[in-house]
């Protein structure tokens, strides 16, 4: 047995991780249809106006606004129709005094016209149109460059591309853009008892849960998860597996981080790199490791599935988002009342999983090895280090998963 050293307070552990996690610098070019959720790695300056010409914003008639002044239901202005223009077409005629051109939404405005009268405010008869409502200059017209002007900066490096921003790229005729590469995260479970999902279990064995839950966290937060296989309880094998995983941007290992005789991760990391902390004042998840190996960050997660997943939410999730140039996830929370009395864990910050039933938070934590402690939960509550008991009915804040 190798006892823990001094346990690091949760906030201090977060600070250490934050200080050592850096955004990836690699850039790649992707098509705009594959760019949703990616982070722009270049500034975009408009090369064309949008819209590129003045166009009708309504179906109706392109007119000179002054020709409609004074129009009303009892005293319409009568204009002569001299043509029509559809979206995608080019007007062939000019609108002169007393004239109008029938126009469709999105069609280019003809010369001479400075407004559009909506079709519902008109009545057509024998090549003439009665206008029952006056319009002002530019009414119902989208002006050239009204949305985007040529030469204007439209998107900045670091913007997360969503549907609206991809629409801006398309408006400029941009088919491809430069984005930051997604951080590659190597995921390695350890332990002779851990078996790949799909294989037959032998007595004493369990399925690999952690690499699949960690994969989900990485993928949902802008990273590329790479499951590199299960490492056994052999020091040389573990060191070799870690060395191979370092070709990625971040390494996450589950299991082997505690203090048992066969928990070898500390020994391997002492030989390969620098351990920045081993053990945190949290429950669950005390035996968590953070190290730097050959300039790459490495996280050692507890082997128990609930401890591993909760610490993945607390430490891995924000780390991956930082590396991917993504902003911190906006955590949603709700206020509730505790459904039953729960003990604290004096000296350690506790993250207690709960499900919501009406306005009550019902604790669902069973033990660190029970994955349903998270699967059945809507979120968690934090219990401070100096709290030894929370009474039933106490107000709590539930952070939603």
- Specify Rg, calculated over alpha carbons: 32 Å
Low-confidence stretches: none
Mean pLDDT: 93
Distance between the termini: 35 Å
Contiguous helical run count:
7
Question: Percent of residues in beta strands?
Answer: 25-35%
Q: Identify the overall geometry.
A: elongated
Tally of DSSP β-strands:
28
Structural class: alpha/beta
Biggest pleated sheet: 6 strands, mixed
Helix content: 10-25%
What is the spatial order of strands in the main beta sheet? 7-4-6-5-9-8
Topology summary:
Layout: H1 10-20, E1 27-31, E2 44-45, E3 55-56, E4 60-63, E5 77-85, E6 99-103, E7 115-118, E8 122-125, E9 128-131, E10 141-142, E11 153-155, H2 163-171, E12 176-180, E13 184-189, E14 194-195, E15 206-207, H3 210-220, E16 224-227, H4 235-245, E17 250-254, H5 265-272, E18 274-278, E19 282-283, E20 289-293, E21 296-301, H6 305-323, E22 333-338, E23 342-343, E24 349-357, E25 360-363, H7 372-375, E26 379-383, E27 389-390, E28 395-400
Parallel strand pairs: 5-6, 13-16, 13-17, 14-15, 17-21, 19-24, 22-25
Antiparallel strand pairs: 1-12, 2-11, 3-10, 4-6, 4-7, 5-9, 8-9, 18-20, 20-21, 22-28, 23-27, 24-25, 24-26, 26-28
Describe what you observe in this structure.
This protein is of the alpha/beta class. It has helices spanning 10-20, 163-171, 210-220, 235-245, 265-272, 305-323, 372-375, and strands at 27-31, 44-45, 55-56, 60-63, 77-85, 99-103, 115-118, 122-125, 128-131, 141-142, 153-155, 176-180, 184-189, 194-195, 206-207, 224-227, 250-254, 274-278, 282-283, 289-293, 296-301, 333-338, 342-343, 349-357, 360-363, 379-383, 389-390, 395-400. The chain contains seven helices and 28 strands. A hairpin with a 2-residue loop joins β24 and β25 (360-363). It starts with 9 loop residues before the first helix and ends with a strand. 38% of the residues are buried.
């Amino acid at each position: 047995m190798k006892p823990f050293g001094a346990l690091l307070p949760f906030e201090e552990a977060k600070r250490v991780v934050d200080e050592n996690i850096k955004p990836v610098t690699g850039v790649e070019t992707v098509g705009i249809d594959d760019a949703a959720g990616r982070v722009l790695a270049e500034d975009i300056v408009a090369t064309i106006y949008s819209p590129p010409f003045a166009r009708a914003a309504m179906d109706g008639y392109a007119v000179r606004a002054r020709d409609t002044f004074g129009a009303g239901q009892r005293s319409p202005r009568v204009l002569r129709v001299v043509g029509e223009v559809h979206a995608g077409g080019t007007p062939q005629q000019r609108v002169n005094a007393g004239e109008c051109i029938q126009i469709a939404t999105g069609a280019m405005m003809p010369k001479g016209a400075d407004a559009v009268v909506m079709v519902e405010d008109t009545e057509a008869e024998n090549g003439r149109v009665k206008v029952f409502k006056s319009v002002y200059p530019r009414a119902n017209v989208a002006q050239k460059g009204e949305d985007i002007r040529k030469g204007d900066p439209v998107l900045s490096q670091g913007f997360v591309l969503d549907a609206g921003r991809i629409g801006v790229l398309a408006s400029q005729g941009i088919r491809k853009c430069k984005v930051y590469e997604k951080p590659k995260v190597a995921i390695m479970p350890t332990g002779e008892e851990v078996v790949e999902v799909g294989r037959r279990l032998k007595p004493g064995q369990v399925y690999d849960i952690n690499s699949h839950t960690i994969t989900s966290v990485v993928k949902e937060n802008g990273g590329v998860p790479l499951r590199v296989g299960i490492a056994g309880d052999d020091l040389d094998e573990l060191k070799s597996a870690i060395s191979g995983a370092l070709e990625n941007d971040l390494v996450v290992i589950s299991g082997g981080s505690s203090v048992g005789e066969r928990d070898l991760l500390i020994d391997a990391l002492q030989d390969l790199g620098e351990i920045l902390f081993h053990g945190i004042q949290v429950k669950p998840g005390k035996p968590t490791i953070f190290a730097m190996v050959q300039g790459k960050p490495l996280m050692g997660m507890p082997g128990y599935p609930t401890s591993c997943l909760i610490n993945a939410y607390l430490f891995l999730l924000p780390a991956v988002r930082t590396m991917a140039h993504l902003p911190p996830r906006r955590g949603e929370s709700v206020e509730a009342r505790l459904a039953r009395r729960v003990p604290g864990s004096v000296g350690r910050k506790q993250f207690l999983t709960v499900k919501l039933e009406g306005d009550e938070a019902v604790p669902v934590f069973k033990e660190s090895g029970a994955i349903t402690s998270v699967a059945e939960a809507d979120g968690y509550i934090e219990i401070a280090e100096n709290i030894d008991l929370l009474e039933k009915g106490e107000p709590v804040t539930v952070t939603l998963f």
